[in-house]
Amino acid sequence: MACGQAAVLHKVVTVYSEMRTNTWRRWEEPIWIPWVGVLHSEEQPDKSRGVPKCSRSRREEFMVIGPSEPIVAVLGGDIMLPCRVSPAMDVQNMELRWFRSKFSEAVLIYQNQREQREEQLAQYRGRTSLVKDFLTQGEAAVRIHNVQAFDNGLYTCFFRMGIFYEEAGLELKVAGVGSAPQVHITGPEEDGVRVVCMALGWFPKPQVQWRALSGEKFLTFSETQAQDAEGLFTINATLVVRDPSSGNVTCSVLNPILGQEKAMAIFIPEPFFPRSSPWKLAFMVILTVLMLLLLGAVFYIMREHTAKLQEMQEWEKLHRDKKEDQRIKEEALKARDWRKSVYLASLKKAKLYADWRKEKFQTLTVSLDPESAHSILALSDDKTSVTFKDSCKGSEDGVYSVLGHEGITSGCCYWEVEIKNAERSEWALGVCRRDVERKGWYQESPEKGFWVVAMYDNIFGSLPANGEHIVPIPQRVGVFLDLKEGDVSFYNMTDGSHLFSFPLASASGTLLPYFRLRSGNVSLTICSGVGGPVQTPLPFNNLPCSSEEPGSLPGQGFSSGCGVDGDFPGAESPLLPCGPEAMSP
């Protein structure tokens, strides 16, 4: 840290308040000491490091003291702003500076034993000088000539010797007495006489007071003020005198700093006051009564109008409520009819729970066709199960399939398949066309006549893969084939949830159940269909299996293509949306 840098601390200093007085005061002011002094007060220096130290004799330290009370100056006069150092010492070789709120706003600079004009504010050039009579005794003062209003305010005197400096603040109060007040009558005002008092060239803002001949003060009057380019105040005070016996009134203007006052009195003759007519009081009483009657009539009319308006609003509200009830009923009937038509048209497209669809689909007894089975596969004696032969476990590069013996050409039917070791093997099941090509390696897709779900790469999904997969992997899968509506759906028969659905847009001719093994210790077994899911939702009784089958109104029953009668579901059905807007197009 350079020796020339300094740190600021605060301490309570006891100094005398005025030169050559015995009055002592205490205040807190900043003092500046070198940073080295601050650092060395905390720890001892390491002499082996060779850090340079700053040393200063006690005679270089001093304190700057300014007047403790504000200095009063009269406009146009001269004034001195004194400061001194303690202990007393010669300050001729010091830098002395008086400035305003900022260090750069210099009023006077004394350096190298002469005054410096370069940094001095323009408004102080030619108006300041340094009083040098007592520089050797530690006292200095700046003299301001021709004091102006803008000289009013705070100043700082700054003394510096080398790298050590101190400063003190002082306040200058500028005061000036302007012109004597001019008082004149401007005319009648309501029931009195308006009197105006004007005074020019005062600083600071003077205090204005109106007094009667008896010395009593008028407390109610208006006052305006303005400052000219030099900062001097012009005062206008207006008083309304209502007592004809007042006679003389006096306007006085007081400078609050100097305590000097100027006053002027004016006599107001009694004829100047407006005369009151004997009919004036009667007129005011009649006017007041008429105003009260008018207000009463307005209040009565407004109350009657408000009552009629409220009655009309209530009638309109009842009428609106009636129309709204009628509209709601009509919309409810339309919504019921709409839900009925949508239900009948889209029931088969909904992803129902397996138990609900089982009630409307005919159970198909599926047996495996040995002639369609790959040579690596082994069928059970009852032709309901397929697995790999004992000497074979399949291969990821092969496709080994078998078809159902029964061909399907129409109607709604379903069958269930149980998969053993479903998670640790690769397999597929679904339906295919009778004429599909199954020789060698082939790929299953709807375009080639296959509609299947499969377990592949430890993922269960549809083929071809579309990025969607199901967790957990089902152990029992239901295949629901609706050739009337043209779709095939797969369900997890363990919990009854929907897995996938395929449209049969490209299906034509006869369809066959399809089963394929690829790898792993896996077997596919066609179930009897009597087993139910573990978690069964509330059954929705007697749903029609086709949108083409007509439905009947609630309570009348209807006949479906599956040969089951039942009731048409109401709005509370969990399969139906609450309105048209809840149904996807």
TrEMBL record:
Keyword set includes Iron: no
GO CC annotation: cytoplasm; external side of plasma membrane
Classification via SMART domains: IG (SM00409), IGv (SM00406), PRY (SM00589), SPRY (SM00449)
Predominant localisation class: membrane
Residue ranges constituting the B30.2/SPRY domain according to the UniProt record: 346-533
Cited Pfam families: C2-set_3, SPRY, V-set
Spans through the membrane: 281-302
Protein topology in the membrane: Single-pass type I membrane protein
Ranges for domain Ig-like: 52-157, 181-265
Source superkingdom: Eukaryota
InterPro entries to which the protein is assigned, alphabetical: B30.2/SPRY, B30.2/SPRY_sf, BTN3A2-like_Ig-C, Butyrophylin_SPRY, ConA-like_dom_sf, Ig-like_dom, Ig-like_dom_sf, Ig-like_fold
One of the GO biological process terms: T cell receptor signaling pathway
Subcellular compartments: Membrane
GO MF entries: signaling receptor binding; zinc ion binding
Family: Belongs to the immunoglobulin superfamily. BTN/MOG family.
Record's protein name: Butyrophilin subfamily 1 member A1-like isoform X2
Species of the source: Mustela putorius furo (European domestic ferret)
